[in-house]
């Protein structure tokens, strides 16, 4: 059985470039359209895309446009004639290029061109010129392949299950012929109907690594081709908002990875605070760790908050472009009230909606990390103040105890003349360092030292006993058996923050209150 023939195959590129406003690269007006000219050169067409920008939200940029047509026509007649159009436009802050290369339906004499094999799509893709890696548009692109399945341009019973399978098989073959063998073919995503003909989508929107969005549209009725030409500018806008939604979500995933790394650093800081003993005075090593944490946490928190702000900065553009996308679909539906536009609506109702919810869930989740950093900082400051106050109090007690000892020693030394025998005959004043005088002097010093040491010991013991009784009273007034509550970070971004309650005497029963994270699609 010979392979099926196709009629008038087309390739449409919808590529989008963000307009740069920064001084070093201000106004990259021609960057995207130069890439379009390079694609045409692959077909031997040296056509220039002359553009001229003007003020306005939506501006058609063709410098040679007429009142009826803003596109640029080009053609090359040979054994395999090639024609097409270039449609440059600016939508607000985005340059858009719709570039179409096709085998015409009629030749120069107006005679219908012959059907071709599916492999003709290979001739429409020289040097991989249509691939995202070659076009390299900053906001992404959509490739649309269109074809007629039969020369008669109609297929009345394509809605049957068997015919749908045949059509999808045809679309798969066309895509495999178009994508070079050495490159990976985008996976099939879904199928539907648009303007009365079946359309097949390839490329998974949330699989952002090397994402390539391709549509294969099989015309089975002339109305489809007519409406495509009429609504071509609207499709340029629809695919523009779609590309900006995808790009916003893609950039948000990059910020998400950075936030996840910072989140682990926060967990490490919280672990340091929680590892410090609560029931004893901290040593010099512990205090040094706290001082280092006091220096690290403010800087870490500042960066963390900046990353959260960056994540939120992608949520807002996604939301705005989603509204614009829905608006364009509504305008299209108003123009064609009988048309089924679910194929276009599915992206906004399913994919984009999930993207928006995902970013919001990430914002809600990571915001708790910043709150805990603030609490950790307050806890460290409080602990340092307590340790400093305790150190000052201990120093004061030591000074008081030493004072008691010195005072007692002074009293003993002063009272020595009254309790030591003062017999001048036994003390040789002229010879103070005789054995008799030395024994008396030593006795005074020794008794003074013993008295001072004893007074210091009694004073220290009394002060310790007083502090101990005050501490016990404080614990009793707080209630025996009260739980000690800690707030700890979850072990992974998919797990909520846990509250851990622990009995003060025997922490044997630990309960964790878990809650499922809000609808978080797989990253």
TrEMBL record:
Its transmembrane ranges are 402-420, 440-459
Q: Which domain of life is it from?
A: Bacteria
Biased composition, class Polar residues, residue ranges: 483-511
Organism in which the protein naturally occurs = Planktothrix rubescens CCAP 1459/22
Compositional bias (Basic and acidic residues): 512-523
According to UniProt, the name of this protein is Uncharacterized protein
Q: Which UniProt keywords apply?
A: Membrane, Transmembrane, Transmembrane helix
Region: Disordered; residue ranges are: 483-523
Q: Taxonomy-wise, where does this protein's organism fall, top ranks first? A: Bacteria, Bacillati, Cyanobacteriota, Cyanophyceae, Oscillatoriophycideae
